[in-house]
Amino acid sequence: MHGGWIWIAVPVVVLAVLAIRFYFSRTRRNMLRMRIDLDKTWAGIDALLKQRHDEIPKLLGTCRGYMPPDHEAFEPISRARADYLKARTMQEKSLADIAMAGALEAIFKIAADYPGLKSNNSFIKIRKQNAELERSIEEQQEFFNELVSTYNHRIRSFPGSLVARRAHLEPREPIPNPEMGDEA
């Protein structure tokens, strides 16, 4: 009867090992799925940013028909667009887009001084498209940053940190938020 405990201990240990393996496998799969969701969400944001920046030449062309060609409002937009076009990382693109949003806001305010521009159908259409894109970008960025927060929490907290280390999962950076004064 002294060896009877082994018939209980062995199955308990085997079940514990299987439960741990199942937990780590499921956790790894969920973390990898979150990383894929982050990549997909960023791709959607990137497409919206590209769409907004592709509209800039049309906006500048329309504005140049009403404003002096050397107007000071054109330079920040051109610089922000150039920064965006040479940006490679998510952080660089986001910071360039923050600069673009500010430059666009300035030119839309300046348009009030040019009644012909303000009432131009192309200008009105571009302004409306920009407002819609801005809303979509902000919504997607907010969603992305929430995903980043959840993902980073999971890969940094125990026992998820053990899984993340084995799967070589690194924390992600949130997108800078201009209203919060974020810096890269």
Summarize the structure.
The chain is mainly alpha-helical and 184 residues long.
Structural write-up:
- The protein has helices at residues 4-54, 56-64, 74-86, 90-110, 115-118, 121-156, 160-166.
- The chain is an all-alpha fold and 184 residues long.
- Helix 1 (4-54) runs parallel beside helix 4, helix 1 (4-54) runs antiparallel to helix 6 and helix 3 (74-86) runs antiparallel to helix 4 (90-110).
- It is rod-shaped and about 95 Å long.
* SS element count, helices: 7
Main beta-sheet strand count, sense and barrel state: none
Task: State the helicity in percent bands.
Answer: over 70%
What's the overall average pLDDT, rounded?
88
Question: What is the straight-line distance between the termini?
Answer: 68 Å
Annotate the secondary structure layout.
Layout: H1 4-54, H2 56-64, H3 74-86, H4 90-110, H5 115-118, H6 121-156, H7 160-166
